Amino acid sequence: MKLQSKPRCAWCAGVPELIAYHDTEWGVPEHDDQRLFEKICLEVFQCGLSWRTVLTKRENFRAAFCDFDFYQVADYGPSEVQRLLANSGLIRHRGKIQAVIHNAARAQEMVLEHGSLAAFIWQYQPDPLTLPPPQSVTLSAESIALSRDLKRRGWKFVGPTTMFALMQAMGLMNDHEVGCFRRSLIPDAGQLPL
């Protein structure tokens, strides 16, 4: 029961799947394009649902979307959409499935233009000195700008609140609550590695 005794962010409140995710992934700076694309896709599926619902289906999503390799996903056509809609292990929402496939092609374009998806996303990292208290807001000027820029480039289901959640999860900011044991363990987000 030592796991339960550590002070954590309130959002994972005693739910085993959420605790494991919180303790090992959430807020850790991520620069891998495939993992960033995965998180964007999972945030797409989460729209209007609980994160726990998405998290419990994550392995099914990974299998269905080639571990979120956006080069493979971009080639999905109507038959793959139908296959995904028939997969009971997924959130079967046609618009979200089509958005993931569509966004995979946009991710490829971004790599060509910026060198990586990470290089593009990390340019929206907030200045730590301007951040509000942890978990006190659900969007920021940076998440609004990131959303606007992605939409301008044709991305779908990437609203400012969704992008704020992405920024929290991928460590563009350390948004762990002040009393959370993970706050001091999260490395400085820093800049992209050379």
Automatic annotation (TrEMBL):
Where on this chain does Zn(2+) bind?
9, 22, 176, 180
Give one GO biological process term: base-excision repair
Matches recorded under InterPro entries: Adenine_glyco, DNA-3mA_glycosylase, DNA_glycosylase
Instruction: Tell me which UniProt keywords the record has, alphabetically.
Output: Metal-binding, Zinc
- Molecular-function annotations in GO: DNA-3-methyladenine glycosylase activity; metal ion binding
Q: What is this protein called?
A: DNA-3-methyladenine glycosylase I
